[in-house]
Amino acid sequence: CETCSKEEAKYRCPRCMKYSCSLLCVKKHKLALSCNGVRDKTAFVAVNEFTDLNLLSDYRFLEDVGRTADAAARHCIVHSPATKRLLYFLRNKARGCNIELKTLPVGFTKRRENSTTFNSMENKFYWHLKLIFPHCHAEYTLKGVPDDKTLADILKPYIDPVESDPVVCQRLKIYTASPQSDVRILMKIENRSRNSVRYNELDASRSLLDNLKGKVIIEYPTLFVVLKTLKNDMVVLGQ
């Protein structure tokens, strides 16, 4: 067992392939690694390792995608005039800020969970935001983040040694123990081919709005927080 290192392993997690001996250890490993235990149907498989089971899995995955897309197209909300007006309003306001905001059909997870709003009185976006910390396998979702807030202030409750929450600080101790100069904030560049994934490096001292200008966003921004001193496979545009 890779959790308690005491008992003989009986189970293997379909998601992260960790071995466990009991339900208690399964729950512990899910909590420690933020693992949902669901097999990643889109994980890369090399051609020389491809089997009939992988082919069947891909076929069923495509069938599920087709059913989901069809159900989304039939959903009553997608044809609602109020929904269409709201999405048009958000995209129009984003375009006025030099941001290309794209929305997904009903049925997609990002469309369902997106809580981004625009306050006309304040002339300000309140973004739904996702922070991903790859070195700790952790991610956090923020709601109602004002667009004039700097990225440094957004990250303070997570990686600041003094101001961060003790529980979060313990989980992200690799980040809190590192100097702020080592922290990089990256955002994936959309509309690129899968074999040419690149990221933009954002400026932590500038506001969220300034960092999003001139970029394509699908539903809401997802920021990756990485450390310069630790190896990662994210290639920044221009490198």
From TrEMBL:
<comment type="similarity">
    <text>Belongs to the BCD1 family.</text>
</comment>
<dbReference type="GO" id="GO:0000492">
    <property type="term" value="P:box C/D snoRNP assembly"/>
</dbReference>
<keyword id="KW-1017">Isopeptide bond</keyword>
<dbReference type="InterPro" id="IPR057721">
    <property type="entry name" value="BCD1_alpha/beta"/>
</dbReference>
<keyword id="KW-0862">Zinc</keyword>
<keyword id="KW-0832">Ubl conjugation</keyword>
<dbReference type="InterPro" id="IPR007529">
    <property type="entry name" value="Znf_HIT"/>
</dbReference>
<dbReference type="GO" id="GO:0070761">
    <property type="term" value="C:pre-snoRNP complex"/>
</dbReference>
<dbReference type="GO" id="GO:0008270">
    <property type="term" value="F:zinc ion binding"/>
</dbReference>
<protein>
    <recommendedName>
        <fullName>Box C/D snoRNA protein 1</fullName>
    </recommendedName>
</protein>
<comment type="subunit">
    <text>Interacts with FBL, SNU13, NOP58, NUFIP1, RUVBL1, RUVBL2 and TAF9. Interacts (via HIT-type zinc finger) with the RUVBL1/RUVBL2 complex in the presence of ADP.</text>
</comment>
<keyword id="KW-0479">Metal-binding</keyword>
<dbReference type="Pfam" id="PF25790">
    <property type="entry name" value="BCD1"/>
</dbReference>
<keyword id="KW-0863">Zinc-finger</keyword>
<keyword id="KW-0690">Ribosome biogenesis</keyword>
<dbReference type="GO" id="GO:0005634">
    <property type="term" value="C:nucleus"/>
</dbReference>
<comment type="function">
    <text>Required for box C/D snoRNAs accumulation involved in snoRNA processing, snoRNA transport to the nucleolus and ribosome biogenesis.</text>
</comment>
<dbReference type="Pfam" id="PF04438">
    <property type="entry name" value="zf-HIT"/>
</dbReference>
<dbReference type="GO" id="GO:0000463">
    <property type="term" value="P:maturation of LSU-rRNA from tricistronic rRNA transcript (SSU-rRNA, 5.8S rRNA, LSU-rRNA)"/>
</dbReference>
<keyword id="KW-0597">Phosphoprotein</keyword>
<dbReference type="InterPro" id="IPR051639">
    <property type="entry name" value="BCD1"/>
</dbReference>
<dbReference type="GO" id="GO:0048254">
    <property type="term" value="P:snoRNA localization"/>
</dbReference>
<feature type="domain" description="HIT-type">
    <location>
        <begin position="1"/>
        <end position="35"/>
    </location>
</feature>
